[in-house]
Automatic annotation (TrEMBL):
InterPro entries: K/Na/Ca-exchanger, NaCa_Exmemb, NCX_ion-bd_dom_sf. Keywords: Membrane, Transmembrane, Transmembrane helix. GO terms for molecular function: calcium channel activity; calcium, potassium:sodium antiporter activity. GO terms for biological process: intracellular calcium ion homeostasis. The chain crosses the membrane at residues 6-24, 36-58, 64-91, 103-119, 125-145, 157-175, 187-208, 220-243, 263-283. It is a multi-pass membrane protein. The keyword Transmembrane applies. This is Sodium:calcium antiporter. It comes from Bailinhaonella thermotolerans. It is found in: Membrane.
Length: 309
């Protein structure tokens, strides 16, 4: 058990550090190439979750992948966004995040609905198609964000390669160590994905949004989180469905399975959808997130933990 804990801890730290550098390099390279669109930002922010999904599916651990996707979606719009608002009140300067919010909410809700019934190949194709449509809509209607410090292309290319390699290695250690831990502690793999693994993939987003807040780039903060949820749900869900079905591994998180087999409460999936809808409503009402509202968001993640099982 101590060995498994050590591997999981090492993977957690490596994932956080490497994914942070990966996101930083991806954003800077996109800015220099003048392609820092909502699509590029969202895909970069969702990369850690996508890597976890691929690794978990390859390791016959689809429940870890599902738990990570759901957990990251909740974390991004509660704890991560809340901490960003505590650093400095989030006052959006453009309507771009408000245009992105309904697409992100729709993606999360679609993923949640399909997850309840058990993901199939057809569901995977639907999610992949929805991701393509969402990317086109984002490129057409949301537009581009600006980054003040694009950095050196050569330096950022090296940072990107090392960050990607480190993230893949860290995720593998985290997933394999986490699977052993779940067995030793008799904890559901889905719960492990929702907590430890999701936190590991969301902490780089937290570091990125804190940096953006300090540079007074609130639109980039909100846009990256909405994009991470959008592409994490659609592409991550598609990868989970297609990969798991190809390996003949059941990925069922129906209400009965969630409560009796995985320990993953359906209420948590509803909370995932609810946080996305709440973000949409807040952005539709106003372009500002105050510190008191940020405190409530940061605490909302803690409310979800007792609902896991």
């Amino acid at each position: 058990m101590l060995v498994s804990l050590g591997w999981a801890a090492a993977g957690f730290v490596l994932t956080v550090v490497a994914a942070d550098q990966l996101l930083l390099a991806a954003g800077r390279l996109s800015a220099r190439l003048r392609h820092l669109t909502a699509v590029a930002v969202g895909l970069a922010a969702a990369l850690p979750e996508l890597i976890v999904t691929g690794d978990a599916v390859a390791a016959d651990a689809p429940q870890i992948a599902a738990g990570t996707l759901v957990g990251a979606n909740v974390l991004n719009l509660t704890l991560v966004l809340g901490v960003a608002g505590l650093v400095r009140p989030v006052i959006l300067r453009t309507p771009q995040p408000r245009r992105q919010a309904p697409l992100s909410a729709a993606a999360v809700i679609l993923f949640g609905l399909l997850l309840f019934g058990g993901l199939t190949v057809v569901d995977g194709l639907v999610l992949a198609g929805a991701a393509a449509v969402a990317a086109l809509l984002l490129a057409r209607f949301v537009g581009a964000a600006r980054l003040r410090d694009p950095g050196s292309p050569r330096t950022e290319a090296v940072r990107l390669a090392l960050g990607l390699a480190g993230t893949v290695a860290g995720v593998h250690l985290l997933v394999s160590g986490g699977m052993d831990l779940a067995t030793h502690l008799d904890v559901s793999p889905t719960v492990l994905g929702f907590t430890l693994v999701a936190l590991g993939t969301s902490l780089p987003d937290l570091l990125a949004v804190v940096r953006a807040q300090r540079r007074r780039e609130p639109d980039l903060v909100v846009g990256s989180l909405l994009g991470a949820n959008l592409f994490g749900s659609l592409l991550g869900g598609a990868l989970l469905a297609l990969g798991s079905d190809a390996r003949e591994v059941a990925v069922r998180l129906s209400m009965i399975d969630a409560l009796e087999r995985t320990g993953f409460s359906p209420v948590v999936v509803a909370l995932m959808a609810g946080t996305s809808l709440l973000a949409w409503l807040v952005l539709a009402r106003d372009l500002r997130l105050s510190r008191p509202e940020s405190v409530l968001l940061a605490c909302a993640y803690l409310v979800a933990l007792p609902l896991l099982g």
